[in-house]
Structure formats: C-alpha cells, structure tokens
Amino acid sequence: MTDNNLYSQFESVFAANATKTAFETPEGKSYSYADLMKQSSQIANLLVQSGAQPGDRVAVQVDKTVEAVILYLSCLKAGLVYLPLNTAYKSAEVDYFLTDALPAILVCDPANLTELQKIADKANVLKVFTLDNQGNGSLTDAASEQEDKFNPVKRDGDDLAAILYTSGTTGRSKGAMLTHNNLASNAQSLIKAWAFETDDVLLHALPIFHVHGLFVALHCAFLKGNTVIFLSKFDPALVIKYLPHSTVFMGVPTFYVRLLSTPEFTKETCSNMRLFTAGSAPLLEDTFNEFTDRTGHVILERYGMSEAGMITSNPYEGKRIAGSVGFPLDNDVRIADEDGNIVADGEIGILEIKGPNVFKGYWNMPDKTAQEFRKDGYFITGDMTRKGEDGYYRIVGRAKDLIISGGYNVYPKEIESYLDEMPGILESAIVGKPHPDFGEAVVACVVLDGSAEVTEQNVIEFVKENLANFKVPKEVFILEELPRNTMGKVQKNELRALVTNG
C-alpha cells in the first residue's frame, strides 16, 4: 500500500528542519520541529495503548495550545480521525457529537471533565484525557512516559483524516468527512497560490477547531517548515507586537476591524509583512479600503467551507478586488440553478464544485450526502454566486439561511428550536443583520402567546444558557406575527429588512 498519510508528508519536512523553531509563543515557549516529531510520537503511542485503532475517532474540545496541535499531528500519525469541537459548545451539544461519531478517545478541558465523563461513558468512549490552556493535563502527563518513536500508520489517500461538524439547517449537525488527500491537495494548492517560502513566518491568531486556523494556516506552514508565532487568541496588542517579526497573517474580518480601531496599528507595523488574507465571513468594502489606506497592503480575500477547504482566491500577483473571492483554485467550479442547469456568466446561481479537495460525504448521512452531490460528482455548496465580466467570482448570498457571525457558522433552525420551547413564545425566526465588527449579528424575531412575560433580556439569557455564545442573539424583536407567503413559509427576507432598517 502506498503511504498517503498526510503526516508522512509533514514529517519529511519536519526532519529536514529538525532544529528550526516550529512554534514560539508570547509566554516564551519554543518548540522545534524535532520536538513536534518526538511529542507527537509519544501521544500517538498513548492513544494506541489506550485502545484506539486506525480509523477510530478522537474527539477534542480544548483551548488553543501548541500541545493541542501536537495532538492533531499524533492522530494523523496513528491513522486516527481527528474530530475538533468548538470550545464554546455546551454539554448538550457535545452529547450529540459523541453519540453520533462514537469516538474511541475524548480529550477535554480539566474543568469540564466531570460533566463530559458522563457523556463519554454513555457513548462508550474508551478513554478520556484532559488538556488545559497551558498545555498540561492527563494527556501530556501520560504521554511523557511513552516511547518517543512511532512509525506513521500507512493510509490510503481516501482514508479519513478528520471530521468537522457543521450545523445543518434542520438543526442536526453534519460531520463533513475529510480525507488525507483532501487536506494534502488543498494545502499544496494554497502554498502555490499564496507563494509560501521556507523563510515565511506565520502569525497565528485563529482558533484551531475549524478549517481556517487548523488546516489552511498550519498545513501551509508545516509543508514549508515555517516558524509559527502562536497566539492563544486574537489580541490586537499582541498582533501589533509580533507583526514586525512576521510575513503572513490570516484573519477573519473582525480581526481587521479591531486592528484598524487601534491607533498603534500603522504602516510601519506592517513593513515586514508580505500577505494578509481574510475569510470565513464577508469583508466589508470600507474595511478593505481603509486597511489599504492605513497599511499600503491589500487584503487577499478567499472563499472556502468545511466540506472543501479553500475553493477560490484572489490572486497573489494581480488585482485583488473588494467583495470578490477571486478565481478557482485546483478544483472545477460552475454556477447552476436549483435544478443543476448551468447559468450564463453574470447571472446569479448556486456554486457547485468538484476536485481533490472536496470532502467524502457526511458522517452517517448517506441520504444527505446523495442529496448534496450531482450525479456527475459536483458538490452543491448552497452559496449564491456570480461570475463577473472580469472573471472574478463573487458570493452574493446563501441559498440556505446560514448566518456567519465573527467567522462562525450559525444556523437559525437550531436556535429557533430552543426559542420555540421557551415559555411565553409562540414561534420564532432567526435572521442575520449586517454588523461592522462581526460581519453579521444574530437577531431573534419572536411572537408571544401571552402565557408568560417575555423580554429581550430573558430571551437572550435563555439562549445563552443552552447554546454557545456566538449563537446568542444580539437583538430581539417582539412582533405581532411573522410575515409569511401564501404557502405559509416565513419570509425571512422581510425580516432581514425589518431588523436592518428598524
């Protein structure tokens, strides 16, 4: 069997750069590529010793640390399937993921151990380890006693490397199955498209539980043997401190808005930089232009999704246009109507994609997978798109009701299902409203039944008790009724106009 394990590709680069700094942190920690190879072998040995076998899932809900990245590398090395979970998810949400994915191993924050151990036991998880925000816990304690050699498990390119859960419009989350070839092909495309070189220094301020921070940013660095300045979270002051020592920064629009609101962020701060990228949410044209005026750099916008990594990108060499997502990377794209008929250039339709980066399907959802692919293999993204006369692609809306707030996907149905159970609420509808910082803000529209007192504040508190903070409405509108068409469907376009215009 030919070895297509993504880690094997990383390791050849790691070995050639063994003494080079792989990660450095503001706290003064430094990790060489030799450290990554050694520590990932120790954790891989521990996971296997704990009963995990190739193809088994490892669910991870921990804070951002270098040790968490090493855990990811360990899973790849051992042929396991990495399943990162947003740290904002509450226990009821984690319960669903564990019950659906049935992981062999769970790694969580020590503060959540008692609660999550019960959920893990119910899902027949073999072993639960802990890892805190300093990179310490039962995982690293036990791993330190393991051998520091581990031969990567051979994997076929079509074997799973990771599962990323993305919420569904029906309220049921879908696990996008990503293979070793999916991840490797996309990383190689980005290295070429964005001109990565061995002397690049990546300033990393993104979370590592989704595609952007974990795959897009780190895979490029790993395949070129780059040094990564690793921030535990986005902090404008720290970003400004380390930009002069960096060459690449990847962010969501919120990052750029906050940097521009900081007087210390200047052209001189960015003088060593060669690339700023933005994604995960639409970047306002005002932000795009203000950034160029302030720094002399033009932000490179790109477009991607959990199911395919990066799909299109503005050019590294060439004009970058505000509001566009550039040109296709190494995948085939087309724009079609709901029935799959190709639309003419300039017309709006749904983007469909095909290529080595496109995922294998949804975990345990063969019917849903079949619905989302055309018979000729194209995946239906659900994103409304237009190809301009200039050849640049523009995402103009979403066929589904997805809201992207601060770079996080928010699906209205999930929040609505909770609100509809709240005493005093007859029905609800969730929509997005343009927001200068988050891109879109979550807004709740509710109709009352008179059985209990309902205020804006207790609606917000009710959601906050049950769901992650990024899903909590920023505003609540109490209405007499929800607008509907003749078929009884709620007209969310009218609600969006209402909450936007007041």
What does it look like?
The chain has helices spanning 6-16, 33-49, 66-77, 91-101, 113-122, 138-143, 180-193, 211-224, 236-242, 253-260, 285-295, 366-372, 412-419, 456-466, 492-501; strands at residues 21-24, 30-32, 57-61, 81-84, 105-108, 127-130, 160-166, 174-179, 201-204, 227-230, 248-251, 275-278, 300-305, 309-313, 327-328, 332-336, 348-354, 361-362, 379-387, 393-398, 403-405, 408-410, 425-435, 439-448, 475-479. It is of the alpha/beta class and 502 residues long. It has 3 domains: 6-201, 3-Layer(aba) Sandwich (Rossmann fold), CATH 3.40.50; 234-398, Rossmann fold; 403-501, ANL, C-terminal domain (GMP Synthetase, Chain A, domain 3, 2-Layer Sandwich), CATH 3.30.300.30. The protein has a 9-stranded mixed sheet. The chain has a 4-stranded parallel sheet with strand order 4-3-5-6, with helices on both faces. Helix 1 (6-16) packs across helix 8, helix 2 (33-49) crosses helix 3 and helix 7 (180-193) crosses helix 8. The protein is globular and about 65 Å long. The mean pLDDT is 93.
Class per helix and strand makeup: alpha/beta
- Which percent range fits the helix content? 25-40%
- Termini Cα gap: 62 Å
- What would you give as the CATH superfamily of the largest domain? ANL, N-terminal domain
For this structure, what is the CATH class of the largest domain?
Alpha Beta
**Average pLDDT number:** 93
Question: The CATH topology of the largest domain is what?
Answer: Rossmann fold
Percent range for β-strand residues: 25-35%
Count of structural domains: 3
Rg result: 23 Å
Report the uncertain regions: none
Strand segment tally: 25
Number of helices: 15
The CATH architecture of the largest domain is 3-Layer(aba) Sandwich
Strand order of the largest sheet: 2-1-10-9-11-12-13-14-15
Biggest β-sheet description: 9 strands, mixed
The coarse overall form would be globular
